[in-house]
Design a protein that fits this description.
The radius of gyration is 30 Å and the shape is globular. The protein is built from 23 helices and nine strands. The chain is α+β, with helices and mostly antiparallel strands.
């Protein structure tokens, strides 16, 4: 008889936990052995209505039981058996639930332990034979899961940022094991929690990507530009779903737009199939050796596994930004009151030395508290630089230019508001550099330059200011051409002779562009004006240094954020000025 819905749900939950344990299972290690044994026992109890499920479960259970009875760790055969079972079970569960097994011709076979190539394609071979489920809305079940969704939302955003960073590293160096292992852990975490919360589309997509990355981790798939691009697209789709969760948490509005994943899942599977089969043909004799080598190597590299990294995260906690802002406002008020007390206590300075001493101590503590509270709003600029790096990668390939992107000063910290506001200016500056500045490979070679262009983004502190510089080695800005275009459209009188800096500032005017034709990157004159407007709103300045034929540097100078300025004393009462931008 078909598997009952209640049993199906419980076994599915146990499967998610067993899948997690299978990741830690390694030949020669006990990690995951006892939990896997216990989970299988529970599954067998629940699968009594489907004998075809119980058989494979008992076979695996017997293998694990022998290891435990002999006090032995996982061996290679047991690890492979466990992972084949984990890959086989989802489709088997669905088949057992939907229709009688005899009418359906029985459950799909599980890959034999002795067939490493078949085990290399679990997700591809089983899933493609089944019709994809229909696209569906992200069902959030807010009444039951609001708190869990809030925690998952914050964690998912962190993982998505780590995913993008790891993919950009792998794009430059596909052999980076640390980046690959970190990427796998992030997708595995999102997959596990999204499955627990019944976020169907997210769970299906992350499961496919995780299967792909597991093949890469075990050297059965090579990560090339095409695969990395598809994973980046998957990351972006997951980010869209997380944004729907954000909207639901903040406004209470549930998702009303389906975010399609089937086409992306199909694309991922096709890439996996083509890549793995090509690798199998090319290195047929080396597959067994590669699997053997994997048995003795931790999937998390020499630096330790996922469980170690979780221990590190316990040293920090998440705090809502509203609470942080309220704390800073209260500290600002405390600073003002402390200044007022200091001025009032001056009248008793001669007669009450203890009061003066205590007020001095209070002033010192208040100042330290103010500095600490203000620093809580400071965040590294690295995530912003990472977004720019992704933009450079995608845009340069879209327009057919080869560009090397460099960063410096990613550890510099800025106020959270400044970091958020600086994103748009940097995006438009990068688009300008790629569209107008850096030449095509042919033009660069003709000018005696390397075929690859260079784009450098740097941040550093200069005096009391923070400076961000974007430098390219492109063709520079032709001020004569800029002036001629401005005169032609009536922005500058024909007989005017402005200084070079004034000419360069013309590019910040709305609607101004020197592009000969409109493209997806440039030509509409709606980019650099956004840069100037946002920088002005941050009370900053922007300068342009350019040399024709050599390149251009955009230099943004921003003031440090201050919480409460030094007191301005007017008569006996000081006045505290609060400044925020």
């Amino acid at each position: 008889m078909p598997l009952q819905a209640n049993s199906f749900s419980q076994i599915n939950d146990l499967y998610s936990r067993l899948s997690g344990e299978s990741i830690f299972a390694q030949s020669g290690s006990n990690d995951g052995l006892v939990p896997a044994y216990s989970l299988l026992n529970e599954m067998i109890d629940l699968a009594g209505d489907a004998p075809e499920l119980v058989g494979p479960m008992q076979e695996l259970l017997q293998r694990l039981d022998r290891l435990l009875s002999e006090s032995k760790p996982f061996d290679a055969a047991a690890v492979e058996h466990l992972r084949n079972f984990v890959n086989w079970l989802p489709l088997a569960l669905m088949t057992a639930r939907l229709e009688p097994l005899k009418a359906a011709g029985g459950l799909p076979p599980m890959a034999p332990v002795s067939d490493p190539v078949a085990a290399a394609l679990p997700a591809v071979k089983t899933a493609t034979a089944d019709r994809e489920p229909e696209e569906e809305l992200l069902a959030l079940q807010m009444e039951e899961n609001r708190e869990l969704l809030g925690e998952f939302h914050a964690e998912a955003l962190d993982h998505l940022q780590q995913i993008e960073a790891a993919l950009l590293v792998l794009d430059a160096n596909p052999a980076d094991r640390d980046a690959l292992n970190g990427l796998f852990r992030s997708f595995h975490t999102i997959k596990g929690v999204s499955g627990f919360l019944n976020l169907g589309p997210m769970h299906r997509l992350t499961h496919e990507v995780e299967s792909l990355l597991d093949l890469a981790r075990t050297d059965r798939l090579r990560l090339g530009p095409a695969i990395i691009t598809e994973i980046l697209r998957s990351r972006d789709v997951i980010h869209e779903m997380v944004c729907q969760i954000t909207n639901a948490l903040e406004s209470g509005k549930l998702p009303d737009r389906i975010i399609p994943v089937n086409a992306l899942i199909k694309s991922v599977r096709e890439l996996v199939q083509a890549t793995v089969e090509a690798l199998a043909e090319e290195e047929a004799g080396a597959v067994a050796a590669a699997l053997h080598a994997q048995e003795t190597t931790s999937p998390f590299g020499e630096g330790g596994g996922d469980r170690t990294s979780k221990g590190v995260s316990s040293s920090s906690i998440r705090v809502k930004i509203e609470k942080l802002d309220s704390l800073i406002d209260l500290v600002d008020e405390l600073v003002i009151v402390q200044s007022q007390l200091g001025a009032s206590g001056g009248a008793f300075a001669v007669e009450a030395e203890p009061i003066t001493r205590n007020l001095a101590r209070l002033s010192l503590i208040t100042k330290e508290l103010q500095l600490m509270a203000t620093s809580l709003r400071m965040v590294p600029i690295k995530p912003t630089f990472q977004r720019v790096e992704r933009l450079v990668r995608d845009l340069s390939r879209a327009i057919g230019k080869s560009v090397v992107f460099e960063t410096c000063g990613e550890e510099i910290e800025m106020d959270r508001t400044v970091v958020e506001e600086i994103v748009d200016p940097l995006v438009h500056m990068v688009r300008n550099s790629l569209g107008h500045g850096i030449e095509t490979a042919e033009r660069r070679l003709a000018a005696g330059k390397p075929a690859q262009g260079r784009l450098r983004l740097a941040a550093f502190q200069e005096g009391s200011s923070l400076v961000i510089e974007l430098t390219d080695d492109g063709q520079g800005i032709d001020t004569a051409r800029v002036l001629a275009k401005a005169q032609a459209i009536g922005l500058v009188p024909v007989d005017a002779n402005p200084a070079p800096d004034e000419v360069l500032n013309l590019i910040f005017l709305p609607g101004f562009s020197t592009a000969e034709k409109v493209t997806s990157v440039s030509g509409r004159g709606v980019g650099m004006d956004v840069v100037k407007r946002n920088i002005d709103r941050l009370r900053g300045q922007i300068q342009i240094n350019t040399q024709l034929g050599l390149g251009t540097t955009f230099r943004i100078r921003l003031p440090h954020r201050s919480s409460v300025s030094d007191d301005l004393v007017s008569g006996p009462e000081p006045v505290g000025l609060s400044c925020s931008f």
